[in-house]
């Protein structure tokens, strides 16, 4: 008998292999030119050929992604703590948090890039802006999801404000925060790529988005696919890392 | 004569929405009493317990703990512990850390606190799960951890709000027997809220039968303190007799509550 775990791993891999084989066969049988639709083998060759430059670009994009994630998490948690302090503060600030969220990043990115001269810094700001909202809203909701009976218990035992925060509010907020962190991780990558597209930074500090744009200009479609493949792999790894961090942090709770 | 553990005189509770939770209540609890509050839902039994725990403030009347105000509660000889309907444990902390919580909040030194927490766990028969997490325990075990967390403070008054209401009958009976042993052998003063008549008949030295609309004390029923509360007692004619008399009082109280409700409408 196959366990459901190995099945859930084997089934999508098998499907992937079938699709790749069909893709390769169609490209070869119908002689589809690589600038229209490259075959998987052509993409693989492009990846081998340009691997180093693409990897370098990926690292630059990942640097922006991580920097943005750190800014989003620190900033988001700080804002959430501020908002939870008093209903007045929340009423003052919350509309702006929402405005920040509903404005599409593509629309404000050019402005940010003009305002901040240092390009990596501008890119980080854009990506952080995308990723910060789930951190704020989840942490806020987490800080409020304290079991009221447990809070009453702390009060009954005359707990100080600091004890309430460290021993009750923060651990209570952790599950929601971790869920927010997982979403923010994916969004940081999205934000970094979008910002790079808008900035169109070339030269030595060009990220993967620029490589995609450039490959498009040069009609080097296999290279474009190779870059896309790297972004996808990076996204998957980030998602898996965030998910395992979440599982680790909450391992005792279920 | 020393002052009673608890004395309530004309304590009332009217909620901010205008609902009268509790009509004036007088109640006195002496050291070693096991007082049970029982009644139909809406009779204010939980409200009364929360007033005593200082989780609510009374709208009128006076409450005294050991003849004094609430600010002295928590000092030696005036310790109060509360057990909720749910175990109300911290899911992120091990069992021993959960039991240690009230000591940690009081900043009791770590090794002393650990020793006392382990001793409290032994008293409820859970010494072996000290390093596990709440999620690994059954509902009945979690409730016992909650009781250990109350016992660890060496309380002089134990307040329990329908603590075993969510458990199956078998587990509830076992825990009732454990409670009886802990309370009667150590002379622990207890105030217990329940809606289960058999539980009240089994555990109490005094039962306060409450009625609703508005919440009030309807009748009082004394049970011999000297009875050994074990399985034999549960099967005895004496227990059946107590249960029957309580059932009559409770029936009376709920009829009274219905009249009150109709009068209000």
Automatic annotation (TrEMBL), chain A:
Q: Where are its TM segments located?
A: 51-84, 96-116, 122-143, 189-213, 225-245
Cite the entry's keywords alphabetically.
ATP-binding, Cell membrane, Membrane, Nucleotide-binding, Transmembrane, Transmembrane helix, Transport
User: Which Pfam families does the entry link to?
Assistant: BPD_transp_1
Query: Which topology term describes how it sits in the membrane?
Result: Multi-pass membrane protein
For the keyword Membrane, the answer is: yes
The compartments listed are: Cell membrane
Q: What is its main location?
A: membrane
Instruction: Give the CC-aspect GO terms.
Output: plasma membrane
- Please, which domain of life does this record's source organism belong to? Bacteria
What are the ABC transmembrane type-1 domain coordinates in residue numbering?
A: 58-242
Question: Single GO molecular-function term?
Answer: ATP binding
Signal peptide, first to last residue = none
| Nucleotidyltransferase in keyword set | no
SUPFAM superfamilies cross-referenced by the UniProt entry: MetI-like
Q: Name one GO biological process term.
A: transmembrane transport
Query: Which family does this protein fall into?
Result: Belongs to the binding-protein-dependent transport system permease family.
Q: What is this protein called?
A: ABC transporter ATP-binding protein
Q: Which organism is it from?
A: Gluconobacter cerinus
TrEMBL record, chain B:
Organismal lineage = Bacteria, Pseudomonadati, Pseudomonadota, Alphaproteobacteria, Acetobacterales
What is the protein's name according to its record? Nitrate/sulfonate/bicarbonate ABC transporter ATP-binding protein
Question: Which superkingdom?
Answer: Bacteria
Mind telling me which Pfam families this protein's record contains?
ABC_tran
Q: Which PANTHER family match?
A: ALIPHATIC SULFONATES IMPORT ATP-BINDING PROTEIN SSUB 2, TAURINE IMPORT ATP-BINDING PROTEIN-RELATED
Every ABC transporter domain range: 6-239
Concerning InterPro entries, the annotation shows: AAA+_ATPase, ABC_transporter-like_ATP-bd, ABC_transporter-like_CS, ABC_transporter_ATP-bind, P-loop_NTPase
Gene Ontology molecular function: ATP binding; ATP hydrolysis activity
UniProt lists the family membership as follows: Belongs to the ABC transporter superfamily.
Question: Which key words are in the record?
Answer: ATP-binding, Nucleotide-binding, Transport
Q: Which CDD domains match?
A: ABC_NrtD_SsuB_transporters
């Amino acid at each position: 008998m196959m366990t459901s775990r190995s099945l859930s791993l084997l089934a999508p891999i098998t499907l992937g292999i079938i699709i790749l084989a069909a893709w390769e066969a169609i490209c070869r049988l119908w002689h589809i030119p690589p600038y229209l639709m490259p075959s998987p083998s052509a993409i693989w060759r492009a990846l081998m050929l340009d691997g180093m430059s693409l990897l370098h670009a990926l690292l630059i994009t990942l640097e922006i992604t991580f920097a943005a994630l750190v800014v989003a998490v620190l900033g988001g948690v700080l804002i959430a703590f501020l908002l939870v302090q008093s209903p007045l503060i929340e009423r003052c600030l919350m509309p702006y948090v929402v405005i920040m969220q509903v404005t599409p990043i593509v629309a404000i990115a050019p402005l940010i890039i003009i305002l901040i001269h240092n390009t990596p810094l501008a890119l980080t700001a854009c990506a952080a802006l995308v990723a910060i909202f789930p951190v704020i809203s989840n942490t806020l909701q987490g800080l409020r999801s304290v079991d009221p009976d447990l809070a009453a218990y702390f009060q009954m035992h005359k707990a100080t404000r600091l004890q309430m925060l460290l021993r009750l509010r923060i651990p209570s907020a952790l599950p929601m925060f971790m869920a927010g962190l997982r979403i923010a991780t994916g969004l940081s990558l999205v934000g970094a790529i979008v910002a790079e597209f808008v900035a169109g930074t070339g030269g030595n500090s060009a990220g993967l988005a620029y490589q995609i744009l450039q490959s498009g200009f040069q009609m080097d479609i296999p290279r474009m696919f190779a870059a896309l493949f790297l972004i996808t792999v990076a996204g998957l790894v980030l998602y898996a890392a965030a998910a395992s961090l979440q599982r680790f942090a909450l391992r005792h709770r279920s | 004569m020393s002052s009673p553990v608890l004395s309530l005189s004309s304590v009332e509770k009217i909620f901010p929405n205008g609902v009268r939770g509790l009509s004036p209540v007088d109640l006195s609890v002496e050291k070693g009493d096991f007082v049970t509050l029982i009644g139909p839902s809406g009779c204010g039994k939980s409200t009364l317990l929360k007033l005593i725990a200082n989780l609510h403030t009374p709208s009128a009347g006076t409450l005294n703990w050991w003849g004094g105000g609430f600010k002295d509660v928590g000092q030696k000889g005036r310790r109060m512990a509360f057990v909720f309907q749910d175990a109300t444990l911290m899911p992120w902390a091990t069992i021993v850390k959960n039991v240690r919580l009230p000591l940690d909040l009081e900043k009791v030194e770590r090794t002393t606190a650990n020793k006392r927490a382990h001793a409290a766990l032994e008293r409820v028969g859970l010494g072996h799960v000290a390093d596990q997490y709440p999620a690994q325990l059954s509902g009945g075990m979690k409730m016992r951890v909650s009781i250990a967390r109350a016992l660890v403070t060496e309380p002089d008054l134990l307040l329990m709000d329908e603590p075993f209401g969510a458990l199956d009958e078998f587990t509830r009976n076992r825990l009732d027997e454990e409670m009886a042993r802990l309370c009667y052998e150590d002379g622990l003063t207890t105030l217990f809220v329940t809606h289960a008549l058999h539980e009240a008949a089994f555990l109490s030295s005094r039962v306060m039968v409450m009625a609703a609309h508005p919440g009030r004390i309807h009748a009082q029923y004394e049970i011999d303190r000297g009875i050994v509360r074990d399985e034999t007692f549960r099967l005895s004619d004496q227990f059946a007799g107590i249960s029957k008399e309580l059932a009559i009082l409770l029936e009376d109280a709920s009829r009274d509550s219905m009249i009150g409700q109709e009068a209000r409408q």
